[in-house]
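User: I've been going back and forth on whether these two constructs are worth ordering. Before I decide, could you fold them both?

Assistant: Sure. I'll take them in the order you sent them. The first construct and its structure tokens:
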Amino acid sequence: MTLTQVFFQTSSTGNPPLSGANSGVGTSDGQIGPVAVRGAVRGTNIYPAFTGSWIMFYPDGTIKFSLKGHVVSPGSFAGSARITGGTGRYRNARGTMTFTAVVHTGAPVGGQSTPVFIRNMSGSLILP
């Protein structure tokens, strides 16, 4: 699977990524196997551990994943994710992904106001 997620921060406490937490919501588009998907994503990250719990919403079901990230440089992040379940077509899904992300502060992306986060994810999805 390969996905591009474009999301904006909906709430923040503390001083992420040094401390606190932040939540986001946005789009999640790409390929799951041979199938092109367009959907949504939402979730929360906790700092300074940089762990997160997220869920992707697609017409055929949802995919839940947890992530562990780190700061690469100011405004740039990377890490890994573990798929921990889902609903519908993705019921009991498992798998792993890696991701890179950047904070985009230029012109609006995907109809969303800035700043937005752009996260590229790739990996494997295993269905029972």
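The second construct, handled the same way:
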Amino acid sequence: MKKTIYTIIIIELISIVIAFYFKSENILNNSYPKISLVFIVLFIIMIIYLLKSERSDKK
């Protein structure tokens, strides 16, 4: 269970670094909100994955 939490934390940190890189480079000034939306969707997917793995651990 701890392994999945650490994996999610690492993925979130990487996504934050990527987001800041794009923001500092000003490559995607107009599409930046779209990118943050992608990260929110990824975060939701990770939460769903975590919940599913928790349920399978209980069985």
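Notes on the second construct follow. Residues 2-58 form one domain. The chain has two helices and no strands.
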